[in-house]
Amino acid sequence: xxxxxxxxxxxxxxxxxxxxxxxxxAITGGDNPHIGTVTTLTKDSDLQTIRYPSxxxxxxxxxxxxxxxxxxxxxxxxxSCTITAGVHVNHISKxxxxxxxxxxxxxxxxxxxxxxxxxxxxxxxxxxxDSENSQ
Length: 135
Prior knowledge:
By secondary structure, the chain is α+β, with helices and mostly antiparallel strands. It has a single domain (2-116), classed as 2-Layer Sandwich (Ribosomal Protein S5, domain 2), CATH 3.30.230. The protein contains 2 helices and 6 strands, in the order βββββαβα. A 6-stranded mixed β-sheet has the order 1-2-3-6-4-5. Strand 2 and strand 3 form a beta hairpin. It comes from Companilactobacillus suantsaicola. Residues 7-116 form the Prenylated flavin chaperone LpdD-like domain. This is Amino acid decarboxylase. Pfam families: PAC_bac (PF21758).
């Protein structure tokens, strides 16, 4: 599934891939999409983030967007969720920075609505019992 929003002359996109009951979400946009951060969460666990170094040695701040989306969708997650985020707008303006949070909120709301109407009924994995072993 693909969700997007455009404001202040740039577009932010969330590509959502379902893997069993788990979600992989890639948030990208602007002039130079990339992977700046990785955020993980489940319905019942805290968000955890890894921030990658950027070209100038500082660390990417895209987790602000991922965390916004994650907090919106967390209560509806059917399994685990991994969110990568990387939005870069060349010569970004203060207005563009200001709307980025509401753009991520909007993406989260779009995904949440989709989650509420999507069936994640997949077969449960089968494991060996203590009394069994592989052949």
